[in-house]
Amino acid sequence: MLEVVYFTSVVLCVLGSDAPCLNDGGTCRYDHLPCPGGYVSGLCSGASNRRCCQSSGSDAPCLNTGGTCQYDHLSCPGGYVSGLCSGASNRRCCQGDDSACLDEGGTCQDDSLSCSGEYVSGLCSGASNRRCCIEDSACRARDGTCQDDSLSCPGEYLSGLCSGASNRRCCIGADSGMFSNVKVYSRATWGARDPTSVSAISTPVDLFFIHHTTGSRCYDFSTCAAKVRNTQNYHMNTKGWSDIGYSFLVGEDGAVYEGRGWNNVGAHTSGYNSQSFAAAVMGNFMTTKPNTAALNAVKNLIQCGVNLGHITSTYRLYGHRDVSTSSCPGDALYNEIKTWPDYSTAAP
């Protein structure tokens, strides 16, 4: 008997692997179905609408910060943070761009949380209730800085604009650019020593003197601040004065550095300290005058003093040499200030 054996050909259909999705704790499904944590493409086999549904709970730490969990080879505007997303180690939390809030000195947070200043919309990434908390916003709106009012303020203090204790007030002028378009660095900013004593000056004054410090010139904050500190040490340690002598110092970075400021008698122009302020431009200006940035800073500083009521509107401007045998403020700088409209040829 002849036995005929039939072989049946079996064709197996092998789907692509869903392992990438499963490894992330997700489930592959068609994306018309609801998904609590959102769909991620490229992790599932099959049709393009068969995608990986992520679990919502595991990504909550990222979502709560206004971020989105995604693979870190993808572009992310605000940078990636690890440890906030479920799944593989390269699935990280992409933070939105909060730079607009950060630039205002604020913090992006859920607006149900307490904010000592005020919330501003439109500056934070994420949900609409994730807003920018800008503390001390009333003071910031005046270009001021909130600080303890026992600290020196080159401008003036205003109450009611800062959060916290009653002695935390808004200093208008400290590092704010409020001095008629000139930046003023406070004593705290450049690293001043405390004075051994102070004497209040009666204002407004009618005289303003220009000096130079001699020595090297400076063109950036770091170099200028170091020069101011060295000047203070020289005045206090070698000359035995209670503080740096000048009311203000000016660098060729275009900034003003607070010395004794608007409130205290200086030690800059013998015989006139109690009735004048003085600014010293840092450097030696016998042969060349300071750059335009420094000259404009001096002019704007004086105008600020007038605006704040510390200097009379009819003030008279002098060089140090006008009342001494010194060559200060240097030939080139002296010739420059003699062209300014408020320079006086009459004796003080």
UniProtKB/TrEMBL annotation:
The processes (GO biological process) annotated in the record are: immune system process; peptidoglycan catabolic process
Where is the signal peptide, in residue numbers?
A: 1-16
**Annotated keywords:** Immunity, Signal
The Peptidoglycan recognition protein family domain, residue ranges: 182-324
Q: Where is the N-acetylmuramoyl-L-alanine amidase domain?
A: 193-330
Question: A single Pfam family, by name?
Answer: Amidase_2
Give any GO molecular function from the UniProt entry. Answer: N-acetylmuramoyl-L-alanine amidase activity
Q: Superkingdom of this entry's organism?
A: Eukaryota
Q: What is this protein called?
A: Peptidoglycan recognition protein S1L
Q: Can you name the source organism?
A: Magallana gigas (Pacific oyster)
Gene of this entry:
pgrp_s1l
